[in-house]
Amino acid sequence: MTTPNPCTLEQARAAKLRVLAVFQQLAPVVGVGVTRTDGGYAVKVNLQAAPPEGIALPESVDGVPVRVEVVGTIRAL
Fold it and tell me: Which residues lie closer than 8 Å to 11 by C-beta, 6 or more apart?
């Protein structure tokens, strides 16, 4: 497993829609944003629940690193 090169903020922002499209096919997405990571930026995907067993989530999309967190159901306070 290799770590993707650090990406710029602009690259991460440009990849958000593509990341959303990929992850919506694999798991219940409740949010997508940009986060700092390893000297650069990555797209952060928040999931309602872990993906089904046997589904591997990509660590990067179009060369942009992706960080995943299971946050549960999002509710208004």
Answer: 41, 63, 64
